[in-house]
Amino acid sequence: MPVALILGATSDIAQAIAKQLAKENFNLILAARNIDYLKRIQHDLQVRYSIQVDTVYFDAISFDQHEHFIQQLSVFPELVILCFGYLGNQNAAEKNWEEAYKILSTNYLGAVSILNRIANEMEKRKKGTIVAISSVAGDRGRKSNYLYGSAKAGLTAYLSGLRNRLYSSGINVITVKPGYVATKMTENMSLPQILVASPEQVAKRIWKAIHGRKNTIYVKKLWLWIMFIIKIIPEPIFKRLNM
Amino acid sequence: MRKKVANWGNYPVIESELYHFRTDKELENFLTLPSIIARGNGRCYGDSSLSSYMLSTLHFNKAISFDIEKGIFTCEAGMLLDDILQIIVPKGWFLPVSPGTKYITVGGAIASNIHGKNHHIDGTFCRHVIEIDVLTADGNIYTCSPQQHAELFQATCGGMGLTGIILRAKFKLKKIETSYIDHIQIKARDLYEILDLFEIYQHCTYTMAWIDCLKQGKQFGRSILMMGEPADKDKLKHHLHSSALSTHPTNHVSFPVNMPSFFLNPFTMKAFNNLFYWKNIRKQIHTIVHYDPFFYPLDKILHWNKGYGKKGFIQYQFVLPIESSQKGLIDILKRINQYGTGSFLAVLKLFGNDESFFSFPMKGYTLALDFPVKKGLFTFLDQLDRVVLDYGGRLYLTKDARMQPEIFWKSYPHAQAWHEIMRKYNTGYKFRSMQSDRLEITSPHNQEKYASSTYFGSHI
Predict the structure, then answer these.
(1) Most buried among A38, A140, B33, B100, by the most CB within 10 A?
(2) ipTM value of the model?
């Protein structure tokens, strides 16, 4: 059975993806910081799908551990899904460098550090798929979340470069821009329901994208149009908007 | 964040805080709130899981273990029966007791001590529970069972979440050979016939009846008795043999909008009931059906509750002791008849003996029916409550949204004893709901007020 590695496996989206992959007969390696929570997710998947599930400690911002993390994996996965991210608090981050650094390092540096290593290994094997969850927030910086947005913009640019580099090795890189998803991250926001996807919808969409070797996907089509409009507003107008 | 929340009856609707937790640690933080009530999938009908601070268990929903040999399942309280069925059915196991919907959580099933079509044979859900973990007001997590911390266990079964937050449960499953039901339907021309049929078919594993509450005259109480037995493999048609343990499909139709309330009037309801009764042309129909349409016919239509309009509805479910059942049912059905807007259809069922310490069922008949909320309804239901009480019956807390406290304290025989245990674990009434406040369960002075107020009915 093929093996998938899920980074940031305790997130709601990651859990939905894990179930989707389990249904498609993948064995899984779940990686995250909270080992107790990981173990619960592991047992849940084993009971539900009778697949093999391993758990490994992983911290996105412990860059110096990343090499060791790859080395210790019992099998190298053909599919890697990067789900970790940190929305943080924009206001706090404007005043406090630690919060700003946490947002930038989790969403951007951490992703680059681990994906660099994974990409090298996959390139050697000439085989594999990388899926990473970026964000529509990275499509254009807005005052309400530009620290998170700029980190995700960096991730999106990194992924497009990586896709370009790995194409000749037959490795596919998929950028996912989910839009609003009903997860822990958005639990305390009041959002227009029409724009909110469920984690299960995201997982299904990702599985289709893996299968169809897609490049960049929005989960709800509506987001494609919204971001299109947001991107074409001329800067002299955009800077005056309250968004 | 404040959110508009209602349970399945869409009455009452409140604006309140709804919190979620995913780990034990996150849960601990919520114990500092002034008060809380656990909330599962919101399928109770009234205000049992509504309060100023609600704690959703829906993200605390992991499967823990499944012993395929012995048929023992362990999971966290937020897991839906829907998910459990997907796991256990292909391995030849089924829920020991199942309500009319699979969209409830295990925690909810225990807090309500739910019953199903097999109550007269298998009792309530909690009879099959081996062990539960409950977080109480002092911050301790007790593992309790009929043997260990038995008092807490008994008070938590049917305890409406007032002893604490149910975190995990381990329970026994029922062995099945196929996921199909050997199903017989018999039409009964009136109330007397349906009551006889229930007696005759008491040995059947699953029984319930749809009863037409609006019919007057000669066909008063006409019904369709539904019976079922788990089907053996040799009962299945040959082409089904390879999928003998198939689970339910996951597709649905969704009820799109709230139906305008004028749509529900005596005329449309009577027309619907006629159709329902006459669609069974023959007196008796024998079929083999999948468990999904048999147990969960309404699950096919997501949000069917919107059919009762924006104002919502009350599902009124009572039980009468067997001795006074016939007399009481005639009396009550006549009153509903006069009132006019009973539900489309009501569900009638004969319960068996029940050994639960604090739960709704008792040996006798239970009737459940829906009333759209409108002017005059609550006055009518208050009168009906008195009648139920006079016949020695009681109302199902899980469906209740409006009962007066006095009715509760008089009709639940162990209310006092239960309350004393509950209070030990629910110090300072940390766990409270709109219902428990309304019924004066979680108000300080109820002890004296309702002391030994159990009432055994004047019509028995």
Answers:
(1) A38
(2) 0.92
